[in-house]
Design a protein that fits this description.
This protein is of the alpha+beta class. It is built from 14 helices and 13 strands. The strands form 4 sheets. A 5-stranded mixed β-sheet has the order 3-2-1-4-7, sandwiched between helices. The chain has a 4-stranded antiparallel β-sheet with strand order 8-11-12-13, with no helix packed on it. Helix 4 crosses helix 7 and helix 11 crosses helix 12. The mean pLDDT is 82. This is IS21 family transposase. Pfam families: Mu-transpos_C_2. InterPro entries: Integrase_cat-core, IstA-like_C, RNaseH-like_sf. It comes from Muricoprocola aceti.
């Protein structure tokens, strides 16, 4: 049997066909044919140890010695690209392949052999992720366990900074951002920045069960925080939290967190940062290096895989940027005023004693009752003096 593995290995090392043929004891025509077939099917070195010469031969010459010349060879790279499209399955592609074979006057492979050969091609060419992950369909997110130390220039006090990681499972393209804390506003803002970095949003968002985003996640009930859900609605994505203690629900985020811990956090371990802004710049530089690192077992890198396979399938970003908001609940007091923690704002007097929901943004204060907005105010940026207290203070000054 032809030593297909050795031909691919020597070609990867840069040997000319004449030397390869001499080494594997095959003709130069055979070597040329094997390399041409490998190029057409995107098969390249290195290969996994379990990829044998027998499996390569069955891939290069399916049905050899069994009226192979009468059968139409499937275009596996094209099949792989078509599977990325919404609703496309191997059954549909096999049906179209049969019509194509009939038009060419050749016999098609049966559906079982068609599927087996595609899966074999996908495994050998390291294209198996497409089988499980549609491009632009999911974004997995998590916090890294390790932190970066931020030093105070005056006191020398050390504060930890936390690394947010988002990954697109199909291309493994990564976004990472450093935050001073893991609170809800930082968590949600990181999602906004991730979608901006990717240039689009995804159909599904898969977070871990963090209190900043997921209030409750049991077998029977899942509660998403209102601010987190509002952000997801703005980007037309659905939140599907991973099950508790089931990291396999987001394996790519888990793997990318480890990868980012090594190539971002560990790579910066000997640096001393005296501000969060300085550390953020260093993290963004390491992020670009991470996404440009070549894959070990497939051609290209995370950036090229995203550009070639995933970018066109991302959902478009909304025209208006998302405005982060904080939700809270309060009971309306007898003065029918609610507070944003600094200033007070009026609501309809007939809501005295009722529970209302308050939505705070940097510019507005909105009040909702039973899902309907009942009041909206421009948010004041400086504390306003209470007129009653101001009047009483004036009376006291007059008495004095």
């Amino acid at each position: 049997m032809v030593d297909y593995r050795e031909i691919l290995r020597l070609d990867h090392l840069g040997y000319i066909k004449k030397d390869i043929a001499s080494s594997v004891h095959s003709s130069r025509n055979t070597v040329s044919e094997v390399l041409t077939l490998a190029g057409n099917l995107h098969v390249c070195w290195p290969l996994d140890d379990d990829v044998t010469n027998e499996s390569l031969e069955s891939l290069f010459y399916p049905g050899r010695n069994k009226d192979n010349g009468e059968r139409l060879m499937p275009d596996y790279p094209k099949i792989h690209r078509e599977l990325a499209k919404k609703g496309v399955t191997l059954t549909l592609l096999w049906t179209e392949y049969c019509l194509e074979a009939s038009a060419a006057g050749k016999k098609p492979y049966m559906s079982t052999q068609f599927n087996d050969n595609y899966h074999k091609w996908a495994r050998i060419t390291k294209a198996t992720m497409r089988i499980q992950h549609k491009p632009g369909d999911e974004m997995e997110v998590d916090w890294a366990g390790a932190t970066i130390d931020i030093y105070d220039e005056v006191t020398g006090e050390i504060s930890p900074a936390y690394l947010f990681v988002a990954v697109l499972p199909c291309s493994l393209y990564v976004y990472a951002e450093l935050c001073p804390n893991m609170k809800s506003d930082a968590f949600i803002n990181c999602h906004v920045h991730a979608y901006t970095y990717f240039g689009g949003s995804t159909r599904l968002l898969i977070p871990d069960n963090l209190k900043s985003g997921v209030t409750k996640n049991t077998r029977y009930d899942t509660l998403i925080s209102r601010a987190y859900k509002e952000m997801a609605d703005h980007y037309n994505t659905a939140i599907v939290p991973a099950r508790v203690k089931h990291p396999d629900d987001k394996p790519n985020a888990e793997g990318s967190v480890k990868y980012a811990t090594t190539w971002i956090l560990a790579a910066l371990r000997n640096y001393h940062f005296f501000s969060i802004e300085e550390a953020k710049i260093a993290v963004s530089e390491k992020l670009e290096e991470l996404n440009l690192r070549p894959f070990k077992k497939r051609l290209g890198n995370r950036r090229s895989a995203f550009e070639d396979e995933e970018r066109e399938f991302m959902l478009p970003l909304p025209k208006a940027p998302y405005e982060p908001a904080v939700w809270s609940a309060a009971k309306v007091q007898n003065d029918y005023l609610i507070s944003d923690g600094i200033n007070k704002y009026s609501v309809p007097f007939d809501l005295i004693g009722e529970q209302v929901d308050i939505r705070l943004t940097s510019a507005t204060v909105e009040v909702f009752y039973h899902g309907g907005r009942v009041a909206s105010h421009v948010r004041k940026t400086t504390p306003q003096r209470d007129p009653i207290r101001q009047y009483n203070a004036a009376k006291c000054d007059e008495a004095a």
